[in-house]
């Protein structure tokens, strides 16, 4: 890479939201300070909007870092949850005993826990990312959370981060109650032409650069025109421009290097005009004039009947084959029906969206595409979600090495459920409490074959190689939790969740290793008390 060439200690323009690279220019610092003030003083619901790639996630990370220690932060990273799932997710993040509880019971538990924290001088703030993707019903549930209050203070602060479409949702008449509860609204603007040089130099300095201006004036102007001030685009173009300069053995970035970066980048059609340099526009115009002159010359010499402009008959379209035949689906049997296609082809299953996300009471069990002796006694599935298997290499998460050894696909296939449970317990005890894991599902079944078949489905069919299983209790009934790997940072876990959600009809949940351990410890305490 170009790090040594330019005297850098790390990549300066990574698009990962690292708080060490937070740029305070162009009102970003002022917005952050206003957010901190609003949260500390309990100012109801707060809204932050901005275009895709403008830095909302970075601002969210900075808010978490800068809040006082007495404020506890809860993240809601999956905007597709329904209103019931939101309640269970928030309560779960607060480590409340929600197993086997009804929604109203969980709300009472949540209210009581917030009052207890308030009495101890604590505050709780809920940070919701991608709020524009939430359904109207879920947004309404969020509003009801703002009713949890004492006579003088809000018990739960709420900060909504979303794209401009969030404002469109809030302008719907049915959302006027939520809109009225928003006491502070901030809009994150794109960077201006005058602040882009400061942004580039700030990121370079933060990465260890000590030289003079690295990007010349022409390069900065071109980056400004193409990026339209969107921070993510600026970072992508700057990174690729540095790589082009390194390949050219240059020690500064010029217009030619930015042009090479543009050629290697993909932006929306709205910037297509800006991405063409004036030199290329002139070339294209000359080409059009030449073609027009040739057509005019042919018309003069042969008459209009001899000049054919693209009159070739269009060949019939060739059907495009499906990328994959339907892989063996797995069934999600829920207390609430999940609308999904019951199709035998992967293409049909992929084309029909799931209308209702899974609830917290979801029961997960695997089946094959055709009934067999092993599956004939399983309950009738409510819905079948066909899973198209993508390349395994695209789904390899960055996980701790200790999560890799016990669960290679070949070795795991030969283990009994008891052996799998013991290995997973040993693995769980070896992980740090502040590490993250991903909850893939919950299996409510006493049939060991059902559980092993589901684990095999996750490992072999979906290509996930760090699947762990643990046993717990829910309303005095055993269930088995299935989690994926150990992640040292929250960002890595969230990236994996987004990947799983995008490629399959899964709704994995972010968990902490400490939270899973506490869940198992609570079940063990109940078991000891019941035996006395």
Write up what this structure looks like.
There is one protein chain. The chain is α/β, with parallel strands linked by helices. It folds into 3 domains: about 25-185, P-loop containing nucleotide triphosphate hydrolases (Rossmann fold, 3-Layer(aba) Sandwich); about 195-270, Helicase, Ruva Protein, domain 3; about 330-530, no CATH class. Helix content is about 40%, strand content about 15%. The protein has helices spanning about 5, 30-40, 55-65, 85-95, 105-120, 135-145, 165-170, 175-180, 195-205, 215-225, 230-245, 255-265, 280-300, 345-350, 410-415, 415-430, 450-460, 490-505, 515-530, and strands at about 45-50, 70-75, 125-130, 155-160, 180-185, 330-335, 365, 385, 435-445, 465-475, 475-485, 510. A 5-stranded parallel β-sheet has the order 2-3-4-1-5, with helices on both faces. A 4-stranded antiparallel β-sheet has the order 10-11-9-12, with helices on both faces. A hairpin with a 2-residue loop joins strand 10 and strand 11 (about 475-485). Helix 4 runs parallel beside helix 5, helix 4 crosses helix 6 and helix 11 crosses helix 12. The termini are far apart. The model is unreliable at about 270-280 and about 305-410 (pLDDT under 50). This is AAA+ ATPase domain-containing protein. Keywords: Membrane, Transmembrane, Transmembrane helix. One of its GO terms (molecular function) is peptidoglycan binding.
Count every helix, treating DSSP H or I runs of 4 or more residues as helices: 19
Rg estimate, integer Å: 28 Å
N- to C-terminal separation? 64 Å
Number of domains: 3
What's the count of strands?
12
Specify the overall morphology: globular
The main sheet comes to: 5 strands, parallel
State the strand order across the main sheet: 2-3-4-1-5
The mean pLDDT is: 73
Please mark out the parts with pLDDT under 50 across 5 or more consecutive residues, or reply none. Answer: 268-278, 303-409
What fraction of residues sit in β-strands?
A: 5-15%
Structural class label = alpha/beta
Give the helix proportion (percent range): 40-55%
């Amino acid at each position: 890479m170009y790090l040594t060439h330019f005297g850098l200690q790390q990549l300066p323009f990574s698009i990962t939201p690292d708080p060490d690279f937070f740029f305070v220019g162009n009102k970003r610092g002022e917005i952050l300070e206003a957010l901190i003030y609003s949260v500390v003083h309990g100012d109801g619901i707060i809204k932050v909007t901005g275009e895709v790639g403008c830095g909302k996630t970075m601002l969210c990370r900075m808010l978490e870092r800068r809040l006082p220690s007495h404020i506890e932060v809860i993240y809601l990273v999956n905007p597709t949850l329904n209103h019931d799932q939101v309640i269970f997710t928030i309560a779960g993040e607060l480590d409340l005993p929600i197993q086997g509880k009804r929604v109203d019971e969980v709300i009472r538990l949540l209210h009581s826990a917030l009052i207890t924290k308030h009495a101890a001088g604590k505050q709780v703030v809920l940070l919701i990312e991608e709020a524009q993707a939430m359904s109207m019903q879920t947004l309404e549930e969020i509003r009801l959370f703002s009713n949890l209050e004492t006579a003088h203070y809000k018990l739960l602060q709420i900060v909504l981060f979303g794209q401009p479409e969030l404002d469109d949702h809030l302008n719907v008449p049915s959302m006027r109650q939520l809109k009225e509860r928003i006491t502070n609204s901030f809009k994150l603007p794109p960077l201006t032409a005058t602040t882009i040089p400061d942004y580039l130099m700030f990121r370079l300095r933060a990465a260890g650069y000590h030289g003079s201006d690295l990007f010349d004036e022409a390069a900065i102007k071109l980056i400004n025109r193409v990026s339209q001030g969107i921070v993510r685009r600026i970072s992508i173009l700057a990174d690729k421009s540095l790589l082009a300069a390194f390949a050219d053995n240059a020690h500064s970035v010029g217009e030619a290097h930015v042009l090479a970066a543009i050629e290697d980048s993909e932006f929306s059609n709205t910037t297509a005009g800006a991405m063409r340099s004036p030199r290329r526009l002139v070339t294209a115009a000359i080409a059009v004039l030449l073609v027009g002159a040739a057509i005019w010359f042919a018309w003069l010499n042969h008459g209009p009947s001899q000049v054919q402009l693209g009159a070739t008959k269009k060949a019939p379209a060739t059907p495009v084959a499906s990328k994959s035949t339907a892989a063996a689906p797995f069934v999600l049997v829920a207390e609430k029906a999940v609308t999904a296609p019951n199709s035998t082809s992967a293409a049909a299953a992929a084309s029909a969206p799931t209308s209702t996300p899974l609830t917290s009471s979801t029961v997960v069990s695997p089946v094959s595409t055709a009934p067999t002796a092993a599956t004939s006694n399983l309950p009738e599935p409510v819905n079948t979600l066909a899973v198209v298997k993508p390349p395994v290499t695209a789904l390899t998460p960055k996980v701790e090495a200790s999560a890799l050894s016990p669960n290679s696909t070949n070795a795991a296939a030969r283990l009994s459920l008891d052996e799998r449970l013991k290995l997973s317990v040993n693995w769980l005890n070896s992980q740090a409490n502040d590490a993250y894991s991903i909850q893939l599902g919950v299996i409510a079944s006493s049939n060991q074959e059902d559980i092993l078949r589901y684990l095999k489905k996750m490992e072999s069919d979906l290509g996930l190689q760090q699947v762990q299983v643990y046993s717990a209790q829910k309303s005095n009934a055993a269930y088995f939790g299935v989690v994926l790997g150990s992640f040292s940072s929250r960002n890595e876990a969230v990236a994996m969740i987004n990947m799983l959600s995008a490629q399959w009809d899964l709704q994995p949940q972010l968990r902490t290793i400490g939270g899973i351990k506490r869940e198992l410890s609570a079940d063990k305490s109940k078991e000891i008390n019941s035996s006395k």
